[in-house]
Amino acid sequence: MRVIAGLGNPGQEYEGSRHNVGFLVVAGLADGCGIRLSAGRGDFMSGVGQIAGARVRLVTPLTYMNRSGLALAQVLEETGAAPDELLVICDDVNLPLGQLRLRGSGSAGGHNGLSSIIERLDTESFARLRLGVGRPPDGEDLVDFVVDLFEDAERTDVDEMVARAVAAVELLLSDGIEAAMTAFNRRTDPAEGGAPGEG
Question: Which residues are catalytic, by number?
Answer without folding.
Answer: 19
